Amino acid sequence: MAEKTSYKSIILNPLSQNNPVVVQILGICSVLAVTAKLEPAIVMGLSVIAVLAFSNVIISLIRNTIPTNIRIIVQLVVVAGLVVIVNQLLQAYAYNVSKQLSVFIGLIITNCILMGRLEAFAMSNRPWPSFLDGVGNGLGYTIILIIVGFVRELFGSGTLLGHQVIPQWCYDHGYQNNGLMILPPMALIVVACIIWIQRSFNKDLQDK
Amino acid sequence: MNKQSNTYTLLYIIGIVVVVGTALAIVSTTLKSLQEKNADADKMKQILLSVNQQPENIDSLTAIFNRCVEGITINAEGQTVAGKKAFDINVANESKKPADERLLPLYIFRDNEIGTKYIIPMNGNGLWGPIWGYISLNEDGTTVYGAYFSHQGETPGLGAEIEKPFFRDRFKGKTLFKDGKFLPIEIVKAGQHPLGDADYVDGISGGTITSKGVGAMIDNCLVPYRQFLETLKK
Questions:
Q1: Smallest Cβ distance to B9: which of A67, A80, A157?
Q2: Which of B127, B124, B128, B173 is nearest to B149 (CA)?
Q3: How far apart are CA A19 and CA A113, in angstroms?
Q4: How far apart are alpha carbons A109 and A115 in whole angstroms?
Q5: pLDDT at residue A1, rounded to an integer
Q6: In this complex, do A182 and B24 lie within 8 Å of one another by their Cβ atoms?
Q7: Does B39 sit within 8 Å of A85, measured CB to CB?
Q8: Which residues contact B26 (CB under 8 A, 6 or more apart)?
Q9: Closest CA to B171 of B134, B141, B117, B224
Q10: Is the distance from CB of B178 to CB of B165 less than 8 angstroms?
Q11: Contact between chains at B38 and A95 (C-beta distance less than 8 A)
Q12: How far apart are CA B63 and CA B45, in angstroms?
């Protein structure tokens, strides 16, 4: 029973209490890059979940054989291999999405969340918890990506997933899309606002 | 075996590289035909988009393409080059050569409803990477019927807007020849005019470098077709 609760916390903790983006401040670079529109943000999130879960499992399976002095290299090889495979699969089965994401899929390799989870969790845990940890952290990352992408696309372009949502009469009455929303600095400001809101509700995260 | 020894480390890394390498090779070879089919279908889709045709699925796409589009290869003198398949020519490589040495692919779209259109492929550079497109001309060889642009990694919401219909539509009805002079369409800042008489369209605010790239691409890629287009005018 005790183990079951801990599985639950492994997958739920990264969603808010220990979110990789807004609490650990990891993977900020890709949050800036892919969130100008909602759709690439969602696909990017799904790709990160897949790569993170499987690289966690693989590293966890071979964790006892890895020589400690080259463990980072081994982790990188596994992550890079998986990312290339994801990219190839997208090109074969979801060509349009892969065209949209282009370079960003390759950049998953350098996402700090991956290295962080492999080092901190998969190297010292069994495969199943590692898988859950990967999914949990991937979800935590995806949630932030979706929130930021939602805000930026809505106020920056007046659309959501490419559909116009801000009605024409708003524009007729002088409303304008906020061009700043589309630029990378605004992603940082949105992330900062999320951090602010989260910490004001969560006393545990506040600095003493 | 001692896991911290150099021999173990070396063997381990060789082993993992072989395993990962094999896995990647297998994935790549098994998916290759699918990927190439996707890439070809995507190219056909882009060519048809420049004449405003949007087939619903991949089968009707290939059918329409095979029925309506004929690819020919010409040179800068406007003569047909035999033995080169237009569809297989790498426009990116050709556009880097001097204009008179290039092989120029040209697609002729024939349809009973909208008539004959000439489609010219283009390739150039945006801010972050390559951009490309297709521009279709009416039978007179000067009036633009439609245009299509795409890019590899331009900034979403800024430079990437070149692939949106609102930008592509700005090219409709523009002309390449003014009083017998060949003047490719220029891209200017919204509200400004080019120095010469050339027809112009407004660029994308916030996507200045990409817009300039589109202008340079149109200029670079249309100029070699001049001789051929002039023969169409007569």
A1: A67
A2: B124
A3: 10
A4: 9
A5: 38
A6: no
A7: no
A8: none
A9: B134
A10: no
A11: yes
A12: 11
ipTM given for this complex: 0.73
> d(Cα B35, Cα B37) in Å, to the nearest integer?
5
Q: Which residues fall within 8 angstroms of residue A197, CB to CB, at 6 or more apart?
A: none
CA A108, chain centre distance (Å): 9
Mean pLDDT confidence for B96-110 = 88
Q: Are A183 and A32 in contact (CB under 8 A)?
A: no
Reading the block at residue B105, the tokens are 């692919």
Distance CA A109, CA A31 (A): 14
Place of tokens 């020919």: B72
| Residue A2 binned pLDDT confidence (cut-offs 50, 70, 90) | very low
CB-based contact A83:A105 (threshold 8 Å): yes
Number of residues in chain B: 234
As a whole number, mean pLDDT of residues B177-204 equals 84
Q: Encoding tokens for residue A54?
A: 């499987």
Query: φ, ψ for residue B155 (rounded to 5)?
Result: -60, 125
pLDDT value for B149: 92
Strands (E) across A23-145 are located at: none
| Span A56-74, pLDDT tens digits | 999 999 988 888 888 888 9
Residue (of A141, A131, A132, A140) closest to A54 by Cα position: A131
Query: How many other CB atoms sit within 10 Å of the CB of residue A116?
Result: 15
Q: Between A85, A88, A157, which is nearest B157 by CB?
A: A157
Beta bridge partners of B146: B136
E-state strands within chain A: 159-160, 163-164
CB pairs under 8 A between A and B: 77
Nearest of B218, B183, B211 to residue B198 by alpha carbon:
B183
Decide if pLDDT at B184 tops 60. yes
Which tokens hold the place of A204?
A: 């545990």
Maximum Cα–Cα distance across chain B: 84
